Structure formats: structure tokens, C-alpha cells
Amino acid sequence: MTSIFPLSEGVFTIGHDKIFRPFDPQKDNLNDRPIGSLLVEVQPFLIVTESDVMLFDTGLGFEINGELQIHQNLRNHGYQPEDVTKVFMSHLHKDHAGGVSYKNHIGQVKLSFPEAIYYVFKSEADIAMQDHSLSYIKEEISPLLNSEQVVWLSGDSGKIDASVQFFHSGGHCKHHIVYLLDDGTDKIFFGGDEAPQLKQMKIKYVAKYDYDGKKAMELREHYAQKGKEEGWKFLFYHDVKMPVASL
Q: Residue 71 has what pLDDT?
């Protein structure tokens, strides 16, 4: 049996400055934020199967009371960081990859999941280390990219193990990838920032924040249609109300 646990890090607004600012829907007013600010959840996903404890993306890398928030979230569900066996990265933007590493109490940089294999698309890593935008934080991701715990992915698609496939999609950023887990009973789709919220799967639009907005729109339509036909469970990384849903 496969279990899915959204690991919510909270609700945020993000504007053109790429800064994630906490937002309390009960108290805060979106109109008080800079024009064009988006309201998003940030939530990696923990998936537990008979053979693996898997993470899909790693969150912002924020700390609470001196501890990495994603570590706290794991423990809240009865798992330790050392239990994680596989980490699947859709891309390396800071809200998805901020939790790949952290500094311990004496300032040493450590990978957040010491026993895990991290799956990263090689061309995305190359761009991340060359990019000068605010979307990537090199000091957070470079310890991972230089480690021996990375398995580099390449090509248009591939099978990672008996249940997980990846597909090079390239809509949100040039080398974004998505994942489909098929355990023989459930099909679980993680679309990162190309299928980030339930409502976005139901409307047709081109987003300015995507690398290729037209392609991202077409991908959302494709994922929605395929998901309906095959009964996928979608994992929505940025959905404030509905982290897991079928269409």
C-alpha cells in the first residue's frame, strides 16, 4: 500500500522580487501585498511504499526553532530524515530545492537526507549553477550537486525503478521534469510547477512566470486529459486547499 503525506510549509505570497513572504489567510489581505503577488502553498510530498520512503521536492529550506522545517514535518508523520531513501527533484528553484541541504549547529553544510539518493536532471543542474537570477540559490544546491548521492537524469524520459518514471517537460523552466509513480494499484503524478494547483488544471492560460508559457499551458491540458483517462492522483505542490486530488 502506498501512503501520501503533504508536508506543508505554509502559505506565502511571492512577487517580482522572488521573496516568499508568509501569509495568514485568516488575518492578511492579499491587496496589501505588491501588485502581481501570487498566493501559494509550499508543500513537498512524502510517499511511503513497501520498499521506499520518498520525497518529491524539498521545500524552502526554512528553519523553525533551529531545525529544518521539512525535518520537523517528517517527524510529525513518524519518519526521520535518515529514513528517506529517494528524493525526486522536479527542478532546482529555491522554493523546491531549498531543503536539499542545511547547516548544522556548528555551521557544517550537510545534505538533509543522508541516506537518500537524489534524482536530478543534469541539464537543470548545469543551468542552475550558471544562472544569475533570483530563482536559484547556488550555495544551497551546490553541496548536493557535488555529492556522491546524486543520480543524474537525462533524455526525454526514463524509468528510475520498477514504479517511477520521469519525463523531461521543459515548460516552467527549460529543464523541468515531472514524475509518474505507478505501484500497480495507484498512479500518482507529481508535476512540480507545471501542475502546481488544482484550479490551474481546469483553465486555459499562459503564465508569465513560465519559461515557455504556451508549452506549459499545453502540458497542463495534456496532464489533465491523461490523468482523467488513467485515474491519476495529482500532487499539487502550490495548492493552498487541495494538495492531493483526482480530476
A: 98
